[in-house]
Amino acid sequence: MIMYTANGLEDKDHCLRKYAPLVKQLAHQLMTRLPYSVQIDDIIQAGMMGLLDAASRYDDFHGAQFETYATQRIRGAMLDELRHADWLPRSLRRDMRRIEASISLLQQKLGRPPNETEIAKELNVTLAEYQQMLQETRGAQLVYFEDFNDDGEQDYFDRLSFDGDSNPLDLLQDERFKAELKHAIDNLPERERMLMGMIYEQDMNLREIGEVLGVGESRVSQLHSQAVARLRSALKGH
Question: Which DSSP string corresponds to 141-165?
Fold first, then answer.
């Protein structure tokens, strides 16, 4: 049993050993949403530093279970690491925006979600080249990190404090945005809608999702990137 004191956890080494699997689990969940340029070991290392920070800061009187508190600190440390890293090269951001623009144009023209072949044709690339673009842009977020940064303003993650009173998902509290997001998700092709639920609601990793859909992990990555592009295209202006 881990003992708690006013200065945090009494046995930090035991804490690190016990919760190291939690760090790895959170890292693999996050990697589902990140490009291949991000190394899993870097995310795990940042998460371990977050766990150590949680062990030092935790106060049993917060009224929260340690695992709940640690999860927040671990995720915060991982996001902070991503903020400081060149997590998505400009060329990949450019490709993702090209995909989004093509999807938006085809959606208006066809009156339905375009399929991969149609998107590839609009981009003037082969289907294989388009799927490779999706693979490389794996994990482009619904909102890119720099989208939170106004000229002359502090970076979004600098303004966030990952403590017991803050929540990185506060952005989603806008009811109109949530309604539009739900509508956009509902309008995704069925398989992509299922995939988004497995990632963001059930916290399943690529391998688990691939087993459900009967495809490989790389194909899951492609479908996820495409789904995110569809959502970003639908939510332009929000």
Answer: -SS-GGGG--TTSPPHHHH---STT
Please tell me the distance from the alpha carbon of residue 68 to that of residue 89, in angstroms, as a whole number.
33
Read off φ and ψ for residue 131, nearest 5 degrees.
-65, -35
Taking only the tens place, the pLDDT of each residue in 90-110 is 777 788 889 999 999 999 999
Residue 206 token pair: 């690529």
The fold of 90-234 is Butyryl-CoA Dehydrogenase, subunit A; domain 3 (1.20.140)
Pairwise CA distance, residues 145 & 159, whole Å:
13
Q: Which residues of 126-157 are buried (b: 16+ CB within 10 A; e: fewer)?
A: eeeebbebbebbbbbebeeeeebeeeeeeebb
> How remote is the C-alpha of 90 from its chain's centroid?
18
Q: Is 117 left (phi over 0), alpha (psi -120 to 50) or beta?
A: alpha
Considering the domain 4-84, what is its CATH architecture? Orthogonal Bundle (1.10)
Specify whether the CB–CB gap between 153 and 58 falls below 8 A. no
Domain ranges of the chain: 4-84, 90-234
Q: What is the pTM of this model?
A: 0.60
